[in-house]
Amino acid sequence: MKKLLIILAMGATLVAETLTLSGSVISDNQKMITSRFMGFVTNVNFGEGEYVKKGQLLYTIDSKEIDSAITQVKLGISQAQLALQMYQNQYTNVKLNLERHKRLYQKDMVSKHEVETLELAEKNLNDMIIIAKKQVAQAEAQLKEVENQYRYLRIKAPNDGVVVAKNIKVGEMAMPGMPAVVLSDLSDLKISTEISEGNLNRVKHGTKVVVHIPSQGIKTIGTVAAIIPNSNPMTHTFKIKISFKNSNNIVYPGMYAKVEVK
Fold first, then answer.
1. What is the rounded distance in angstroms from the CA atom of residue 104 to the CA atom of residue 5?
2. What is the mean predicted confidence (pLDDT) over 34-60?
3. I want to staple 191 with a disulfide (CB 3.0 to 4.6 A). Which of 39, 128, 172, 242 is the partner?
4. pLDDT score at 141
5. Quick one: the chain helix, strand, coil %, rounded to 5?
6. Residue after which a domain boundary falls, among 167, 184, 201
7. Residue 10 domain-assigned?
8. So what's the pLDDT on residue 229?
9. Pick from 97, 129, 149: which residue ends a domain?
């Protein structure tokens, strides 16, 4: 009888050595993609659940407003360039006239006042040329700025991942700040689970654990990446995140997982 109790006690000890926790697969790099500008969606190049690559075009927005803005800016550039050309022509004429008057002044054929008037006109026109050049440069910079907005009408994937939510359709209005696409990075998946305060001493950052994804028949080694206090102290539990390698991208957020803490 004594031997039987010893065997049962040893068995209970062995069972207690492994702590099994239930959890879910989550993506630690899940992005909500929105539009910077308001406009009608003209094209959608992805579907829900589809795997997309970094830089892949997801959807496009109508560009009529920016087209109109570019037309206005180009008109402003033309006007500034025309003003610059006019001032340069006037400056050339005034300078030639000034040189002629200086020669005539040396011969006492024109008054000093006429020469000084032309010198003042030359200075004023030179100042106007400087201002006109700045206006041309400013208008050209504005054109580049407006043209740069076109890239915000072509929304691309910021990283590789799977589309877990699609909230737009062709013909609908894309609104700034409203999530159009939710993209989960499959290369940065973790297991999220909870552990009781009494068992917390069994894990720390860097602790190796066994990870099971039953639906995919996967058994691998994971690492405790984060220990997060619960916002509700009455539960006396702590959330832990466990990182692992997602070989062949066959594990997805939301899958059931088991974690064994030795």
1. 130
2. 91
3. 242
4. 94
5. 45, 30, 25
6. 184
7. no
8. 84
9. 149
Domain assignment present for residue 2? The answer is no
| Under 8 Å between Cβ of 183 and 31 | yes
> For residue 77, what are the domain limits?
64-149
The CATH number assigned to the domain holding 159 equals 2.40.50.100
Question: Based on the structure, what is the number of domains in the chain?
Answer: 3
Q: What is the DSSP letter of 45?
A: -
Beta carbons of 184 and 28 less than 8 angstroms apart: no
The answer to whether residues 256 and 215 touch, using CB atoms and an 8 Å cutoff, is yes
Residue 5 within a domain: no
Q: Are residues 24 and 34 in the same domain?
A: no
> Which pLDDT score is estimated for 122?
94
Is the Cβ–Cβ distance between 102 and 119 less than 8 Å?
A: no
Structure confidence at residue 150 (pLDDT): 86
- Answer whether residue 196 shows pLDDT above 80: yes
**Are residue 81 and residue 118 in the same domain, yes or no?**
yes
Beta bridge partners of 213: 218
How many angstroms separate the Cα of 118 from the Cα of each of 57, 92, 94, 108, 195?
61, 12, 7, 16, 90
Measure Cα distances from 64 to 9, 15, 35, 139, 153 in Å.
78, 68, 16, 20, 11
Q: How far apart are CA 189 and CA 40, in angstroms?
A: 34
Residue 165 domain flag: yes
Q: Encoding tokens for residue 17? A: 């050595």
Q: Which helix (H) or strand (E) holds 133?
A: helix 112-148
58 and 132 belong to one structural domain: no
